Amino acid sequence: MPVEQERTVIPDMPRGPLCAYRSKAQFNWKDFRLVLEDKELVKIKYDIWRRLESEPLFSPVTATLSVDQQKERAARQVNRIADLELAPPEIYSKPYKYRVRYLMSINEALHAVCPSLSVKIALGVGLFTNSLLAMGTERHQDTYNKAWNREIITCLAITEVSHGSNTKRCRTTATYDPATQEFVIHTPDFEAAKCWVGNLGKTASVALLFAILYTADGQNHGLQGFLVPIRDPKTLLPYPGVTVGDIGEKIGLNGIDNGFVMFNNYRIPRENLLNRTGDVTPEGVYESTFSEPGKILGAVLESFSAGRLGIMQESSNTLSHAAVIAVRYAALRKQFGRDRNGPEQSIIEYQLHQWRIFPYLAAACVLKVSVFAMTEIYLETVQKSQAESNGFELLTQIVSEIHALVSSSKPLVTWTARDAIQESREACGGHGYLRAANLGDLRNNHDPSCTYEGDNNVLGQQASNWLIRQWKNAKVESPVGTASFITRRDAILRGDFESLLRSGVRVESPEFVSQCYEWLMCWLLKQSVAQMDAASSAGVDTFTARNNCQVYRARDLSRAYAEYYALESFRARCARGDVKEDLKPVLFRVYLIYGMWCLDRHMTTFYVGSFAKGSQFADAVRGTLLRMCGELKDSAVAIADALAPPDWVLNSVLGKSDGRLYENIQSVFMTNPGALERASWWKDVIPSKLKSKL
């Protein structure tokens, strides 16, 4: 496709005050966007945004709706999306990777418009059907079809009031009764109630429920999945034996009806057990049906990693939106100047402001690329597992590595987005606190991403545990290559900052960043293992030894591993042949800003581990960071344009692409409901002394 034709997929930006900075960029911002995102996926998003813009149900609301109104609006939006058929029918006959990537792009577009809508569909359609495919069999096909076609509203019920991350200790039970060939679902007390179940509060009629399976002989067969009818789908009234309700108002995402449910000896058919890996005979005998391990492993990967990848995709977009708002505002907002009575300058010119917001702008670029690369690996692995059952051992290694990668990257991406929103809010001053700035809604709707689909601090431990196993193994099992550096650990740990410079490695180079990270991870691995071994030798149990190694060791290791992967992914993308020459300097600055910013976070460790002595290393990293921020200034608005969705999607009075900042703020001030009207309660607030004179 010719360059101009590729660019036409992306709408032009309007003329306006932001052009003063747009004109300073030495590259085409549309070309920059097509480095960050695949052109076909960009086209999908813009097509969806164009269709939804004309739909009244998706128009941005100008005032906060009540909680019940938000739930109703999101539920109606879900139904309207089904009617619109955003994915062409032929998509569903395409190969797995193409089909899922297409659907993921639709989800990203929807999330940018309405996060509650996106999450409701992701839970009730995506995660539910993925889990059903992973754990169910042909006998569950009818439920799968109905959920996929949105004939029923579904949910996934795992978390209980007193157990979240430690799902193995959930206490909801499913006891088999051979006399009636039914499972009896029971909640022993309120602490065992399923809770925080999306779609369950008001709308779901079927739950994929996780409960401990007991056979009639009293034997515990562990946590299993069951299809459990909750409500009559025609009336949405609960069935007898089911106590179900809504948990109430949340900090954000109130369009999602999160619910709780308790069961009182509630009976379901034997066939409702999801029996891919184990089944119960009519007589009540539990039988393992574990076959075709490669396909099952791929299905398990799909079930558990798809949701986390979706969260990372959404969070990288949220991060982008926050950075776009902050950068555009900084280019337009003028305060102070060299001369007291002279012209004021844009706050984007100030080094402090650049240091505050440019690393998040760079992070948005780097993490968008790395999440895309991670998703590619994931989709290819699942597709391969579906196509063949050979190579089980290699597939096991790949699945383990992807799980570690996802478990470390989900915290990195969601935490970075969280921090970017807050910094952007503050960087926009008082105007950033306006609801119309959209930074408040971004923050509140993003916040649960740090704890759902795996609490970030718990997930990170799964990644560090995998890395520690590779360190201890006689052979490193890293087919994806994210931990292959461990094979060179002796040479890596002999190095330091001075030896890097002596070998000719320049500070302002990808090689410098990469080698610093490899030393950092090797040192943290070595120290983590040594600390745990010492604790074990002193008689401390493994559980305690591992837990006491998280702070300053394993937790930092997990984050460093995710940052390293992100930087290597971005570096690889920039090295591809389709990247135009005029883009390479600005992409290099973006890489260095994010790389140096991340290294600066680990500065203490570099000195504690004697990688660096004196001030030279810190001066080099921080000096490079500040210098690159200064050099990025003239490109920042163009990069923001490359990250930005259409204005109606960004929905920020401070971040509009026309750059008419104060005209847009004036419109919000003057037209918000009741702005120029006397309050209906004015009589109640007149001081009593004044009232007596009236």
Q: Beta-sheet strand percentage?
A: 5-15%
CATH A-level architecture of the largest domain: Up-down Bundle
CATH class (first level) name of the largest domain: Mainly Alpha
Mean pLDDT: 93
Structural class: alpha+beta
Amount of helix: 40-55%
End-to-end separation in angstroms reads 77 Å
Write down the overall geometry: globular
Kindly give the count of domains: 3
The largest sheet, given as strand count, sense and whether it forms a barrel, is: 6 strands, mixed
CATH superfamily membership of the largest domain? Butyryl-CoA Dehydrogenase, subunit A, domain 3
Q: Care to count the β-strands?
A: 11
CATH topology of the largest domain: Butyryl-CoA Dehydrogenase, subunit A, domain 3
Question: What count of helical segments does DSSP give?
Answer: 26
Backbone CA Rg: 27 Å
Taking pLDDT < 50 over at least 5 consecutive residues as the criterion, the unreliable ranges are: none
Binding site for FAD: 159, 198
Domain Acyl-CoA oxidase/dehydrogenase middle: 155-265
Main location: other
Domain Acyl-CoA oxidase C-alpha1: 306-467
